[in-house]
Design brief:
Helices cover 64% and strands 9% of the residues. It has ten helices and three strands; from the N terminus they run αααααααββαβαα.
C-alpha cells in the first residue's frame, strides 16, 4: 500500500508543478515562483520516495538481514535537505524582488490556478500522513508533511496576493514569500532531524512506551519479569528484542509456547510485519517476591507485588529484584 500511495504522490507532484509554473509565467510573481520552486522539491522527493518505499518493501536477504527499511530514512533525509535548500532559494528570490521590483500582471488567473493546486496539495498531504502512520512509513509521513507545508505556504501566498490586488503594494509579494521561506526552513530541519534519528537508531520513546504498555495490560502470571527490551522501526517492520523470565522448571516446549503467545499477541495488535527475538531467563529465588503465579510448587518466598513494567525499568539489562536481593 505505501508504494501505491507514493506513486500517486509522485505523479501528482509533476502535475501540480506544471500548473504552478504556468501560474508564475502568467503573473511573474515571486511569491508564486516561490510556490513553484517548492514544488520542484516535491517532484524530486516524490520519485526518490517512490524508489525508497519500493526498496523498503523488499524482504530481508543475506546482505540485508534486517530488511531494507532504512532506505526510507535516507529518502526522508534527502527530502529534508531539499526542503531546506528550497527555503534558501526562496529567500534569495524574495530579497532580489524587493531590491529590483518586476511588474506583475495576470494575477487573477494566477491566483485561481494556485488556489486549486493548493487545495489538491493539502488533501493529498492529509492522506499521505494518515497512510504513513497506518503503515509506519517514514517516507510517506515526511512526504505528507512536506506537501502540507507546501499547501500552507500556497494559501498564505494567495492571501498576500489578495492584499496586493486590494492595496497595490507590490512589496507584499516579497514579504509573504520571506515569511514562508522561514517556515519552510524550520520544516526542512525537522524532517532532516527525524530521518537522521532513524538512521542512527535513536530510541523511539513513544513507540517503546506503547509496546510496553500493551504487553503490561496483557501479561500472563508466568511472565515473571521482562528486561533489556529494545524496540525499533525499520520501514514498516517493527523489531522487538527482550529478555523474559519464566519459571525455571519449565521445559523447552513450555517456554516455547509462552514465547509464541507473546509473538502472536504483539503481531495481532500491530500487524504481521513484526520480528521478535526473546531470550529466556530462568527465575531465581529473588524473583519469588515479584512472581504472581499461583500454586508454584517451588516457591521460596511469598509473593509481594508484581512489578509494573514501563520504559524506565524494562530497558535495563538486569533481572528485577536481583539488586534488592544482594
Amino acid at each position: 500500500m505505501p508504494v501505491k500511495v507514493q506513486r500517486y504522490i509522485a505523479i501528482l507532484s509533476v502535475v501540480l508543478f506544471l500548473a504552478k509554473l504556468a501560474a508564475w509565467y502568467l503573473t511573474h510573481s515571486v511569491a508564486i515562483l516561490t510556490d513553484a520552486l517548492e514544488s520542484t522539491v516535491n517532484v524530486i522527493t516524490g520519485f526518490v520516495g517512490l524508489y525508497s518505499v519500493s526498496l523498503a518493501a523488499r524482504p530481508r536477504d543475506l546482505n540485508h538481514p534486517y530488511g531494507h527499511g532504512k532506505a526510507e530514512f535516507v529518502s526522508a533525509a534527502i527530502e529534508g535537505a531539499l526542503i531546506f535548500i528550497a527555503g534558501l532559494v526562496i529567500i534569495y528570490e524574495s530579497v532580489d524582488q524587493l531590491i529590483e521590483p518586476k511588474p506583475l500582471h495576470g494575477l487573477d488567473y494566477g491566483i485561481l490556478i494556485t488556489a486549486v493546486a493548493g487545495a489538491i496539495n493539502y488533501f493529498s498531504g492529509v492522506y499521505a500522513i494518515r497512510e504513513g502512520k497506518k503503515h509506519r512509513s517514514a517516507t510517506l509521513e515526511a512526504a505528507g508533511k512536506h506537501i502540507q507545508v507546501d499547501a500552507y505556504s500556497t494559501f498564505a501566498i494567495l492571501l498576500g496576493l489578495g492584499l496586493l490586488l486590494v492595496t497595490g503594494w507590490q512589496w507584499l509579494d516579497s514579504v509573504v514569500a520571506l515569511v514562508f521561506a522561514l517556515i519552510i526552513l524550520i520544516t526542512g530541519y525537522r524532517v532532516l532531524r527525524k530521518s537522521l534519528a532513524g538512521i542512527m537508531d535513536e530510541a523511539d520513546e513513544q513507540l517503546l512506551d506503547e509496546v510496553i504498555e500493551f504487553i503490561q495490560k496483557n501479561r500472563r502470571p508466568q511472565w515473571i519479569d521482562m528486561h533489556n527490551m529494545r524496540v525499533i522501526q525499520f520501514g514498516n517492520v517493527m523489531h522487538v528484542d527482550a529478555h523474559m523470565t519464566l519459571p525455571w522448571y519449565y521445559r523447552v516446549a513450555e517456554a516455547e509456547l509462552e514465547i509464541h503467545a507473546l509473538e502472536d499477541m504483539i503481531s495481532d495488535h500491530y500487524g504481521n510485519k513484526i520480528e521478535i527475538f526473546v531470550h529466556i531467563d530462568a527465575c531465581a529465588p529473588f524473583s519469588c517476591k515479584l512472581c504472581a503465579l499461583n500454586h508454584c510448587p517451588v516457591r521460596q518466598h511469598s509473593f509481594e507485588e508484581q512489578l509494573k513494567w514501563n520504559s524506565d525499568n524494562v530497558w535495563v539489562d538486569s533481572k528485577h529484584g536481583k539488586l534488592q536481593a544482594n
